[in-house]
Amino acid sequence: MEARFNNPFTAEGNWFKGNLHTHTKNSDGALSPEDTVRQYKEAGYHFLSLTDHCRLTEVEQNQGMLLIQGEELHCGTSEQKFNFHFVGLDIKEEIVYSGDEIPVLKKKWWEVHPQEMIDAVKSRGGEIILAHPYWSALTTNDIFSCQGYIGIEVFNTTCYHSIDKGYSMTHWDDLLVRGRNIFGFSSDDCHNHFNDHRQNDACGAWIMVKSKKLAVREIMESIKKGLFYASCGPEIKDLKISGDKIFVATSPVKSVSFIAPNGWGEMFTALKREPFREVEYRIRGQERYIRIQCMDTQGRMAWTNAIFFE
Ligand SMILES: [Zn+2]
Ligand SMILES: [Zn+2]
User: Fold this and answer.
1) Separation of 9 CA from ligand 2 center, angstroms?
2) Domains by residue range for the chain, with CATH
3) DSSP conformation class of 230
4) pLDDT (tens digit, 9 = 90+) per residue, 40-72?
5) Which end of the chain is more exposed for a tag (fewer CB within 10 A), N or C?
6) Which residues contact 100 (CB under 8 A, 6 or more apart)?
7) What is the pLDDT of residue 145?
8) Closest-lying ligand to the alpha carbon of 27?
9) Measured in whole angstroms, how far is the alpha carbon of residue 212 from the centre of its chain?
């Protein structure tokens, strides 16, 4: 069985931390673009995409923080009469919304089929991530009604802290089991919204990208190849595939799971007091794909992209 996987842990380059889904005062976020960038810089992020709803927020490239132009794009009508939200990344040309209209597509935004939106962004050199499918109440039919998006948000901080709909692992596996190699992103969707019973949604999720250079072109190339992992806490330090073994090293965690279709895969739980730092899984040969997720003692998770076997 041959493993098909762009392994970020063996790829050349350095690790860079980034958040690809962020709102500012230009839509419904609480902080100005400049203050939002400062907030992420202070939290140790290297790159950030400001993705205001239905508009492009332009900020000058700022020392110490690489900015990737983005826009959150609303479109379509889902099976249950909700809408699709896409994170448009590396947007070179704004998709303008004029009231209910998207002039470039000559339609009201909810009449734009998700495929039309994906094609519009990609034909202009951008990329699409399917945002918060659980929060959006997207069904299997919905997520298969379009293609060409590079990934889905497997975790979304604001969807988690506001209504406990942050995780979309089942949606992800629904794609992977059908052979669609879609990547898993962990994003804040930061609005700086919080109250006395709701935690702030800033700086709680990220992706760690392996790239030769901290520049838009190189970071985007690495993202498109899947050379990253997603986290809202744990660090994944190593992943090696050799023969029928997968070895994973992490910061201290209470569980490491090897997720595969049907009843394949395995969860390793630290039942003694000491958390894990290393786990080895034996590939049985029936898995089709395996992705690895782990959880630390505070319940925060991290996810690798999927390893496919053929
Ligand atoms: Zn959204
Ligand atoms: Zn958003």
Assistant:
1) 30
2) 3-232 (3.20.20.140), 233-310 (2.60.40)
3) E
4) 999 999 999 999 999 999 888 877 899 999 999
5) C
6) 108, 109, 110
7) 97
8) 2
9) 20
